[in-house]
Amino acid sequence: MPTPAPIRVTVWSEYRHEKKNPKVAALYPDGMHRTIADALGRETGLTVRTATLDEPEHGLTDAVLDQTDVLIWWGHMAHHEVADAIVARVRTRVLEGLGLIVLHSGHYSKIFKTLMGDTCSLTWREATDKERVWVVCPSHPIAQGLGACFELPAEEMYGEPFGIPTPDELIFISWFTGGEVFRSGATWRRGNGKIFYFRPGHETYPTYHNPQVQRVIANAARWAHSGLRIKDQAPNMPPLEPLPPDPEATSRSTQGHQ
User: Fold this and answer.
1) Do the domain assignments include residue 23?
2) How many domains does the chain divide into?
3) Are strands 131-135 and 123-125 parallel, antiparallel or unpaired?
4) Is residue 100 part of a domain?
5) Which one, of 200, 183, 205, 214, lies nearest residue 104 by Cα?
6) 196-221 pLDDT, tens per residue?
7) Is this prediction's pTM over 0.70?
8) How much is the pLDDT for 4?
9) What is the pLDDT of residues 88-106, one digit of tens each?
């Protein structure tokens, strides 16, 4: 039996906080995208590349997307700098079958808001909250290997209401020390593509070094891979077998000879 082709993952990030904030640079000296990519690179069956905001075309050229099965997106301080043409390009690829994993503050990214068709707003607090991530759909492939819940000792709080359409599948719900809860892991299908939003990952906490968080992202990359690229078109389809005569057409023809 032939070995399946590896799933090609591109990890995209702004790579701005790491250059501006010494605390973030200490946690992620090569960028959050590199930490995520390195963890994925240790997984069997995945090949990983990175792309960042300040690269030409934000690193998301047609050639890169042609070699990408799953795109992971982290953005925060520069959502407005992402060119609309690149957003439209990624959206088209998602509808064709590209998997999309949106992390943390990517909830306000242009691509996520466009695909959700909603505000994607929420409440937040950057303090000393502990986050307990509850697995509410333990049979889902994204939840494999996690147990009933896992905890992050310190994270930014996100709270409801979360301005998203009703998820196709709700996998995780988070609880915070301050009492808030949040739908922190959810999936949707758009066209031929699969989308997963995963909440944890504020830049001033070491979240992407956490083994459970890395497990979720790796599981999600495998789940989001469709293996498809079906371009949008509206062809005029011939029938698969002969059709019976059209009585109205026959009647019109007969009337024309009278």
Assistant:
1) yes
2) 1
3) unpaired
4) yes
5) 200
6) 999 999 999 999 999 999 999 999 99
7) yes
8) 86
9) 999 999 999 999 999 999 9
* Torsion angle defined by CA atoms of residues 225, 229, 235 and 241, in that order, rounded to the nearest 10 degrees: -70
User: What CATH number should be reported for the domain holding residue 92?
Assistant: 3.40.50.880
Do 13 and 52 contact (CB within 8 A), yes or no? yes
**d(C-alpha 159, C-alpha 174), whole Å:** 9
Return the number of other C-beta atoms located less than 10 Å from residue 119's C-beta.
13
Beta bridge partners of 157: 125
Instruction: Classify residue 54: in a domain, yes or no.
Output: yes
210 DSSP 8-state letter: -
User: Which of 192, 183, 193 lies closest to 158 in space, CA to CA?
Assistant: 183
Q: What average pLDDT is seen over the chain?
A: 95
Q: Are the C-beta atoms of residues 171 and 143 closer than 8 Å to each other?
A: yes
| Cα 176–Cα 180–Cα 182 angle in degrees, nearest 5 | 90
Using 70 as the pLDDT threshold, list the residues of the chain that sit under it. Answer: 249-258
pLDDT of residue 6: 96
Q: Is residue 204 part of a domain?
A: yes
Give the number of other Cβ atoms within 10 Å of residue 151's Cβ. Answer: 12
Domain range for 52 is 7-117+183-231
Measured in degrees and rounded to the nearest 5, phi and psi for residue 86 equal -70, -40
| 245 CA to centre of own chain | 49
